[in-house]
Structure formats: structure tokens, C-alpha cells
Amino acid sequence: MDIPFDQDTICAIATPPGEGGIGIVRMSGPRAHSICETLFHPRYGSFPLRSHRLYYGWIKDPHTHTTVDEVLVSHMAAPRTYTREDMVEINCHSGYAVLQRILELVLRAGARMAEPGEFTRRAFLNGRIDLSQAEAIADVIQSRCEKSLEVAGRHLEGALGNKVQQWQESLLQLEAETEAFLDFSEDLHGDDGESSPQRSAIMRELLEALKAAIQESERGRVLREGLTLALVGKPNAGKSSLLNALVGRDRAIVTHFPGTTRDVIEDSFILSGVQVRILDTAGIRHGPGTIESLGIERTLSSVQQADVVLWLMDQSRPLDDQDDLVHQCIGHKVHRILLNKKDLEPRMTSQEVEERYHPSSPPLPLSTFHREDLERLRHLLAREFVQKPLEGFESMIVPNVRQGACLREAHEALEKAARLMDGEGFGELIILELERARKKLDEILGGGEDEDVLDRIFSQFCIGK
Length: 465
Ligand SMILES: Nc1nc2c(ncn2[C@@H]2O[C@H](COP(=O)(O)OP(=O)(O)OP(=O)(O)O)[C@@H](O)[C@H]2O)c(=O)[nH]1
Ligand SMILES: [Mg+2]
Prior knowledge:
By secondary structure, the chain is of the alpha/beta class. The chain has three domains: 10-125, Probable tRNA modification gtpase trme, domain 1 (Gyrase A, domain 2); 159-220 and 396-445, tRNA modification GTPase MnmE domain 2 (Four Helix Bundle (Hemerythrin (Met), subunit A), Up-down Bundle); 224-390, 3-Layer(aba) Sandwich (Rossmann fold), CATH 3.40.50.300. It has 16 helices and 13 strands. Strand 4 and strand 5 form a beta hairpin. Residues 239-240, 252, 260-261, 280 line the site of magnesium ion (MG).
């Protein structure tokens, strides 16, 4: 039997797999309460369960009458629920068998398994949240650091949605003014098609606001995706030692033999509230054997992936043509030179390095053995690559990639409209561009969004959310 989407009742285990304190089976849809009635036996009170109250009792198999688990059940009547539909949550003991058994009983009583993200999708389709808030829910769940959680929290409150609505209102006002202006200039045929001062002001403000949001989306990528650092240099420069020091454990093997690291080693740490992915690579040198040259290929691919390359030099050895080779490999990327092993007798100077490679900032001397040096490095990285890019962000409403693309298209349409306004009349064309801008903004909130986009967004969620 095909039940229409808005009438079937979905269910899922909402807690992560594995043993734990409690597990939750949740249901959403018009039959949630009646399905609950077939299996739940409250210790106090009786059916119908009152909304938004917690009931203590037992889940029993309706066929065999055996008790499955001791539970707490809540029934939340529509519309004050996560999905805006009737919902039931069964809090049971969290073990694989008990959760599966309860889920099976719920399914047998007429619910169907939820797709990934389907609870949230219903919240969106039923108008409780806009698409930017739905995306924020996934971001909150997936956040691995404080800063990205902060941004997700703002989106969840609807901060981006509110802004978009304001912009849409301004656009409507612009459209109305343009229409009025069109009628007016028809009456006064021959008048110069000059824009009214008010229209120009609204237009200018909107263009600026959209531009700022687009910049936040680009520069704020570090908040959403974190930062990728690659440690690169000649063999034995101390790359793996630095990796271990930064992540705070012995992740990579360190020996005094050059060529210890043959493959890329990846780990992560938190810097100024942001997740940093760090790649330790095989040392770059001339004419290595096959295994090493494969390793070096991977080094180059790590360089490609990195936002920032840390080029380690062993300052107890003189510069040579292998340093030139490293420079060839990384010169095109944003990089910082670190002069390692400053505790040893120096055989090169900072000045020599600067004269030879002209780095954009002076090399930083350090020793991976010295805690203060590592702190200084951390501080420098945080300042330059996390805090600086985020400076001047007004609202910290960092739009994600999809939202950024919608903003860019809206901005483009608006710029066209502005050019048309500055030029001769073409009133209908101006209105078309303004409408296009408004439609693009609407897509941020999920208006007119096609199924494919929704599928892509909601498939990132887990089942049960
Ligand atoms: N004196 C001194 N030795 C260091 C320092 N940092 C690392 N070393 C030593 O340098 C040697 C090489 O260190 P690694 O971290 O393995 O160097 P690497 O760049 O990863 O080397 P490969 O993996 O071979 O490319 C080890 O013996 C380290 O203990 C330092 O600041 N001072
Ligand atoms: Mg190494």
C-alpha cells in the first residue's frame, strides 16, 4: 500500500550505535501515538498519553506479551514538535538487541524506516525551519571545533535566514519603485531616465551587503572546513618531530636517518578554535629509489591540498641545491620557512635564506625540542591563518558553499540591474534582473529548490535525525 508522504509514520533509532546509557527510538507521523499504544504499557496513567509529558512503563511484544524493556516514553502532539507532526520517543536501555527489537515492533505496527535526514526534511517541508537552518543542524552535529559550532549555532537560530529576508524585502521595494518610476517616466516622455536617489541608495546598500556576505563565505572557509597544513622539507629536517610536537603525541616515527618518513602521515589538532589537518610528508631530495620517489609524489600532492606549507630547514646544515628543489616544489604555495634545530651550531643564516628565496615573511628560527618555540609557532599560525582572515567579519554568519553560490548569482543579477538603471530606461529588464536576484536568495532558504538539491543536503544526515 502506498501511503502519501505526509501521511505515513516514520521511525528510526536516533542514538548512535553501540552500547550506552540510553537509546532512543523515535517516530513521526499521524500514527505515532496509536502505534505507541500497541506496545507501551504505562505504569501510571493511561492512553491517550498527554502531550509533552514523560511516562514510565514497559514495552511489551503485543503478540507474545513478553516484556522487552523498561522505558520512558514521551508523546509530543503536533505542531509543537521537531517535525511539526505527532512524535513519540521511546527512551530505552541502549543495547543493539533491545533497540532493534523495539524498532522491529514499531515497524510491525505500521511505521516505516526513515531515510537519512527525513525527520529534519519533514521539519523543513512543514515550514518549521528554512533550508539554511536544516543545513545548520547537520553542521552542529558534525562540528569538531568550537568556532564552527558557533557559526552553526547562529545559522540554527535563523541568523542567515533573517538577513536573506531583509534583503528580499529591499529587493521588493526596489521592484516597486522601479515599476512606479517606469509609469512615471512614460507619463513624462522625454525625461532623462535617471535613477531616483532612493532607488540608488537601496541598490548600493544591497550590493554592499551581498558582497560582504560573499566575502565571509570565501574567507570563512577556514571555519567550516578547517585549515590544512603540510610539513615539507629535505629529509631529516625535523618534520615528523614537529608533527608529533603539534599534535601532542608520538604519531610519526622519528629517527636520525634521513628518509624515515616514506608516506604521508595525517593527524589533526585544534588551533584557536579551528580544526587543523596536518600532513607530514616524505623529505624531498634528488634521485631517490622507487619507494621514495612514490613518497615524494605524495608529498607534492599534499602540497597541492594544503592551505599553508611549513617549509622546515635544518639550520645546522648549509643550504644546497636540494633546498632549491624544495623551493621549486612549494614556491607557488603560501608558505612559511622554519629554521629548525636552532639549539645546534648554525651553518646557515636567516639572511642567506631570505636572499636566496625571497620569502614573503622572515624565516622563524625554532627547535622542536623547545616548548616556548612551539608556542610561538602556534601563536603565529593562529594569528596569520585563522584570526586575520576572519577579521572585519561583521556578523560571523559565514555562508556555506551552496549558500555562497546563491549569493554570488544574486549579486551578479543585482549588478546587472544597477548597470541598467544607470544607463537608459529598460525598465522591464531591470525588473527581470531584480526578480532573478530575489529567486536566488530564496534558494538559500529552500524556496523553489529542486529535489536533487534537497536529496544532496539531507543525505548528509544520519538516519534518525
Ligand atoms: N638538535 C635537534 N634535533 C632535532 C630537532 N628536531 C628534530 N631533531 C632530530 O632530527 C632528526 C630527524 O627528525 P625527523 O623528525 O625524523 O625528521 P624528518 O624531517 O621527519 O625526516 P624524514 O622523515 O627522514 O624526512 C631526529 O634525530 C630528531 O630527533 C631540533 O630541534 N634540534
Ligand atoms: Mg619524517
